[in-house]
Amino acid sequence: MKRLSLLAAVGVFALSGLASASSFIATTDTIGASLANSVEGTSDVSSGGSDKVLLQAQDDAASFVASGGAIRGVRLEAALAHIRQQQPALSATDMQLAEAILAR
What we know:
The protein is mostly helical. Helices cover 80% and strands 0% of the residues.
């Protein structure tokens, strides 16, 4: 009888472990997909015909990111305005856009 109880307990723990693992996988897949969409949107913006504006904003973007958003240079502001004009549906923060400018 003890052996049956032990097997039942092991079975319950195994099933709960599988449920947790599949839940974790679903969560990470969802987060990964949303990050991929965000990166794709910002890379589309940063690789268009606005190379000159974005290149000139790289130093300001680096200062912005390094200061946690405290330092906002004129060239970065121009680049952010340009990006938002080109992609009005883009829902990225200034920090995300500055990081995308640096990543190009």
